[in-house]
Amino acid sequence: MTRRVGATLPVLGTVLRVGAAITALLAIAVAIPAAIAGAARGAQPNILLFIGDDIDWSYYGFLGHPFVRTPNLDRLANEGAVFVNGYSSASTCRPALRTLLSGIREPTWVHTADVYEGVHPTTPRNRIVRHFYFTLPRLLRQAGYASFAGGKMWEGDYSDAGFDAGTMGTPPVGFSVDGADTFARDSLQPLYEFIHGQSGPWFAWVAPKLPHGPYDPPQEDLDLYQNLGLSTPAIEYFGNLTRMDRRVGEIVEFLVESELAENTLIIYLADNGWEQMLDVETALQDATGGDRGKSSIHDRGFRTPIVFWWPNQIPAGNFADGFVSFEDVYETILDFAGAESHDCSDGRTIRRSVIRGKQKTRTRRIFSSIDRVRTPFQERVDSLADDDPDNDLPLVTVEPGFMLRRGRRWQYSWAPERGIEELYDLRRDPEALDNLAAGRPGTARSMRRLTLKLDAALAAKRCRIAP
Question: Partner of 231 at 20 to 30 A CA spacing, among 130, 163, 190, 305?
Fold first, then answer.
């Protein structure tokens, strides 16, 4: 036990049909006693965190998408628990992954890194995480876990973050990391070798660059999306998404064959959202997608379903609409492992909600922020239309952007330096198409004040540099 202590889903009604709902209720009735018994035993499961890369929250068969093929994730969702209102801490990968790794938000991470950099001035900034005592692998090690990191993590090599094994080499500059591009795109062998070498509990961070580019899925996955009226970039993107889903299925098959599935908790989520433009042929969309996805201040830039699967321990078929943040995922992993947390974490464990099949969590609002806001797609296309590079607009500009969800009703998006302020009533307008900021000035003002308050609290927060 750790020390600490959505909008209404528009497709959920079509997903949970009457027969499935009855089956789920029966499954819950059978599974809850086993789950509670497992919790009482204090059993330490192996834990595998699978992180998809650039995926809209609705691009899954288990959420009723009309053509996306994700049969293996559908299995995990239907046999486990799904929190359909999961939220990343950012709409782009690096700050989101930092929260999963540490339990803290980007502003707090930056300030903490500043402190560590003052104490350890010879450590490169992109490897300062080697001095963070509260990364997941370091806290899990105290509870007896070995750990592995494969794919994207971005904070130095795997050992810098406290992992015992992994595929990342030392980044020479920026985001260039050996092993991040290739892991799990075609082979999961390093993960399997790590697992086979363990005699005690283990934690695996599995973060392939999928469906993130390069968009080079095998032909069998491309064929699934032909003849649907999709553009070539869309076919390649969704092909990569199904390719990722195949990797999920291969992991489950490996665990079953290795007789490890019964004692392994799999958690699935995506690092940030995405909007795939279905009929736009230009490859310019490959980096950030459509305007409401990655690097945006809109709900779908941050939102992701969060799936928990642990055979005979988690009730099957629970599609819950409670809010869950990435900080909560961090806390929940520690809680399942029986590991101690740290007093700077922003999250709350949802372990009991997971194992008891609860619909709700204690979180009543979601606040996410970014420090780089995307350039509107068409504006960027227009800026590249001539031969003058001085007119070219960047993918993103350095400026603050915020997204706030308050209860099930209100979504607020704000980019103050651009003069963008948007307010949506998601009960009446679940697709967030009717901006009410001008028509509901009092509500917009209240959301703006709360946004400023939450941002100021994060900016002022400091973490200790030693436990």
Answer: 305
